[in-house]
Structure formats: C-alpha cells, structure tokens
Amino acid sequence: PPELHVLNNCSPGQLEGLCSFLQLSTCPEHLLGRFCSWLLALTPDLSYTSAAILAEQLFLGRVLSLTQPPSRHLMAALASFCSKYPQPFCRVVVAAVLREPGEGAEQTKLVCELVEECLEPDCVRLVLSQVLEVPLSEKLLPVVQAVLGRQEGLPPELFDLLVLTLCRQAPTFATSLNYAKLVTAVLTMYQSQVS
C-alpha cells in the first residue's frame, strides 16, 4: 500500500510511535506475514535503523515469549523479514535471545532453524560472533552446532576465537554430550586448522 512509504520518511522516534499506534507488536500473526511481504516490496529499502526498530516491534516480544514452537504464520513472517533485513534482525532479535538467561528452548530452536534455513553466510558468521561474545552455555551449544552444520568457511579470527572459547570452557562442560558433539564437529570439519 502507498501509505507504507511513510516508513521511509519517519525519524526513529516517529517510527517507534507509529508502531505503537498501530499496535504492531500485538497484531495477529496471520497479518504479520502480509505486513512483511509489503515491507519486501517497499522501495527504496528501509534504512538499517528503521529495519532494526521494526524487527524489535514486530518480533522481539513474540520470540522472547515463545513457550512452544512458533506458528507457521510467525515462521513465514520471520523468514520473509530475514530475507531482506537479516543484519538488523540478527543485531536486535537474535542478540536478545542469546543474552537471555535460562533455558529458552523454543528460542534456541528458532535461532537454529533460522541459521540452518534462512540466513545468508555473512549473517551466520554474525550469529556465531554474537554467541562468542556471551558466556557459553548449554543453551547456546546447539546454535554453534547449527552454524557449523552450514559448512560455511569461517574467517581465521572467528575460528580462532571459537577454538579458544571451546578450550577455555572445557571444564564447565565436562559432562555435556552437546559439548562433546560440538568439539567432534570442529575437529572433523577443521582438522587441517586444529593443532
């Protein structure tokens, strides 16, 4: 709709106010997908800041409050938004999930699914760098496993940081099967780089 062009002309504060006025954070999930398809068609593309605000308004609350697998409507909307604005999405939503303490099983599964199926290689590397910025936990091990499962080459500095983190954290995960699987995957995939 032509009215959506207003999104390109809003300041960040105005955009937050507009999202609040339209109650985007609580709009029904079946309408979320339609809204995201409109965003994809918008020209020119949204600025990074605008996309980050929309990622926060549209998805952050929904993702952090998941207690069961996301609906197909929510997954479709997430995949749609990530296809065009993956960096702001990762910096806002994925970063918040990674920092969230506790189990967060559904959130972790969602991030793994996005890594495996939706995100481009540069964003997969961004997710890994975000994981390595926070203390490694049992909750985050499947995310690292999903990143390795993409079999994308890692830049040397990111790979070194991953190996260093795994070495430092070894005592913490002495009885963790997920940690053992992760170390095995690293040794298998990067055997020429691990001394």
From TrEMBL:
Residue intervals of the Fanconi Anaemia group E protein C-terminal domain: 1-194
InterPro entries: FANCE (IPR039685), Fanconi_anaemia_gr_E_prot_C (IPR021025)
GO biological process: interstrand cross-link repair
GO cellular component: Fanconi anaemia nuclear complex
Superkingdom of source: Eukaryota
PANTHER family per record: FANCONI ANEMIA GROUP E PROTEIN
Name this protein carries in UniProt: FANCE protein
Species of the source: Nyctibius grandis (Great potoo)
Gene: Fance
